[in-house]
Amino acid sequence: MTVHVTGWERTVTAAADFDTLLRERARVPEGSVGGAACGSVGVARGRVSRRAAAVRERLPMWVQLRCGIEVRTLAALAVVLVAAGVLAAYHFWAGRPQAVRAPSRETPVAAVSRAPVRSGAPSVIPSGARGGPGAVVVVDVAGKVRQPGVRRLPQGSRVADALEAAGGPRPGVDTTGLNRARVLVDGEQILVGAAPGGVVGAPASTGAGGGPGAAGAAGPVSLNSATLDQLDSLPGVGPVLAQHILDYRTQHGGFRSVSELRDVNGIGARRFTDLKPLVQP
Which keywords are on file for this protein (predicted)? Predict the structure, then answer.
């Protein structure tokens, strides 16, 4: 009686064929082309194959069937794995976060005026005193100076520059009432050595009418050159208001028009109406 075991026969047959294939590869035919060198190489290969076959024969059948992978296949698989590892390492290194330096923010440097600073000079220059290159101011230098008249000076000049352009004050003239550090305003008149509240050549008021209201008869008072006493002599103006007028003149570089009196602290519409005919820039 014959028993056919299909699965086991297939396994045994596959193992026998695998061993036969290994033995045929290990054989080196005699007299093959290549001489002694090829023979020695064949002998070495044969030894390696026989040892591998001896090891496989000791392994279970299911291990022998699953380990029949050629060396070239293993080498190709190793190359693929190495290439995949290199690509993965490159992508990881290229995609790592990098520190980015923020662009430095440049702050504009404000232009610094190089004009000489004198003691008592106002630190704020009026808007009317600023101009482009070549701008000039026209002022009238009158009174006790060597060369009175109209002078053209560069914009930003001061009272001291106007006096120097007019030849300077005459000997013995008291100029303590002039603020030589004040910035000139276009169209103003500078009176040198004039009586308080008066104009050069104007007669001084005498008699009982020479009170505070006599300032209008003597002529308008210049807001840009009047002293504290001259402003105090105006009707309705006391020492406090006179000091406010001087502070405004110092901060803004002078009065360009009489209407700027409205901006002085303490001068309302009614008081401005009373002072308007008594003063000038």
Answer: Membrane, Transmembrane, Transmembrane helix
| Both tokens assigned to 99 | 């520190």
The answer to whether the pTM exceeds 0.85 is: no
Rounded to the nearest angstrom, the gap between the alpha carbon of residue 9 and the centroid of all alpha carbons in its chain is 89
Residue 7 CB-half CA count within 13 A = 2
Q: For residue range 134-165, list pLDDT tens digits in order.
A: 688 898 888 888 888 889 999 999 999 999 99
CA distance 182 to 225: 9
CATH topology of domain 134-199+214-280: DNA polymerase; domain 1 (1.10.150)
8 Å CB contact between 46 and 24? no
Pairwise CA distance, residues 122 & 181, whole Å: 8
Where along the chain do its domains lie? 6-85, 134-199+214-280
